[in-house]
Design a protein that fits this description.
This protein has 77 residues and is mainly alpha-helical. Helix content is 64%, strand content 0%. It has four helices and no strands. Helix 1 packs across helix 2, helix 1 crosses helix 3 and helix 2 crosses helix 3. It starts with a helix and ends in a 13-residue tail after the last helix.
């Protein structure tokens, strides 16, 4: 499971780690680690509302980008 999928579920469940872990069938601590790891890689603070809004907006923009078959041959939702 990718960090991107974890973050998408995290925001889908309104930043609720318990609901996110249930949706992903993953341990609570694993979800917490993935979120913290993603924030570390992106140099964001998970306790900062502005940083989390920035991340959520970036994920939404990523979802909206045009589909390119050569770049991503897998089916998109």
């Amino acid at each position: 499971m990718s960090l991107l999928q974890t973050l998408n579920q995290y925001f889908k469940h309104n930043r609720n780690i318990k609901k996110t872990s249930a949706a992903l069938f993953t341990h609570y601590n694993t979800v917490t680690y993935r979120i913290e790891r993603a924030c570390e890689l992106l140099n964001l603070n998970s306790d900062d509302g502005d940083d989390m809004l920035e991340l959520q907006l970036a994920l939404k923009l990523h979802e909206m980008r045009p589909y390119d078959k050569q770049r991503n041959p897998q089916n998109r939702r």
